[in-house]
Amino acid sequence: MAPLLQSSQPWVEKYRPRQVKDVAHQDEVVRVLTHTLETANCPHMLFYGPPGTGKTTTALAIAHQLFGPELYKSRVLELNASDDRGINVVRTKIKNFAAVAVGSARQSGYPCPPYKIIILDEADSMTEDAQNALRRTMETYSKVTRFFFICNYISRIIEPLVSRCAKFRFKPLTEEIMSSRVMYICKEEGLDLDSEALSTLSSISQGDLRRAITYLQVIPAEVVEALFSACRSGNFDLADIEVKNVIAEGYPVSHMLSQLYDVIVEADDISDEQKARICKKFAVADKCLADGAEEYLQLLDVASNIMRAIHNMPQQFSFGN
């Protein structure tokens, strides 16, 4: 499905919408935010919903449309709250950035309102103490700083923060919307994707457009399907499937196993007991890969275990670290 040549830029970034109006399938959110951009008077905002639905893209688009490329770096602070989630980060990095007043510099063609923006991605991973510290920071520096919170679960954000923000819910993307976007990328990249592969890609992505685009670039779907078919038939030869060549080109086995896992879970001709045995092996392989195991051997191990589980063959050997 994808050529065995690494792109110089991830397709997720290459095809990320640059303006709010281009965000897919979030009509109500886009309509309200478009009006907000016209006035350039943004409140604190909270974007929540499933992953891969456009939350981070929307926040970045707003910041770029307000300040333009020249002022963006000095006016916008991006933090991933799952990494920078402690109270010390709030007291130092966030507070120091929020406290500094903006200058009078402007960029032609952009509103350049007199405030800065702090984007906190995965804000639901922040500790409760850090969130409580943020509440006071928001109140103190609201004249010169706006906060954009991005999360999957709004229930994990404390109520004092939620009440201070305009809330925007991002809906899961429909298969039709995802297929349309994937086909557009295929056209731009010169890929030939048949309807069956497109349907499989949409299914395993489960409404996450970011995941679908990543899979589209990272690993040829026909290799995963061929690998699973070989395990199911019992006529197993990785040389024919060219998996080793795919790995040699730099495609991570973790992505391949993730896709293979989704295919197996959705398979109707495998019993729950067989799926349980296979999924246990996936967990072991994932741990081995995290510990630095050889990728090709781990893929062989998983494939052989799938074949044994499907055909009720006895356990004979296993590749370890």
Give the SSE order as H and E letters. Answer: HHEHEHEHEHEHHHHHHHHH
Helix content: 40-55%
- The global form is elongated
* CATH-derived topology of the largest domain: Rossmann fold
Rg computed from alpha carbons, rounded to a whole number of angstroms: 23 Å
How widely separated are the two ends? 31 Å
Overview of the molecule:
- The chain is α/β, with parallel strands linked by helices and 321 residues long.
- It has 2 domains: 144 residues, Rossmann fold (3-Layer(aba) Sandwich); 136 residues, Zinc Finger, Delta Prime, domain 3, CATH 1.20.272.
- It contains 15 helices and 5 strands.
- A 5-stranded parallel beta sheet has the order 2-3-4-1-5.
- Helix 5 links the parallel strand 3 and strand 4.
- Helix 8 crosses helix 9.
- The protein starts with 10 loop residues before the first helix and ends in an 11-residue tail after the last helix.
- 36% of the residues are buried.
- The N terminus and C terminus are likely disordered.
Distinctive features:
8% strand, 321 residues, 55% helix, Rossmann fold, alpha/beta, Zinc Finger, Delta Prime, domain 3
Brief characterization of the structure:
55% of the residues lie in helices and 8% in strands. It is α/β, with parallel strands linked by helices.
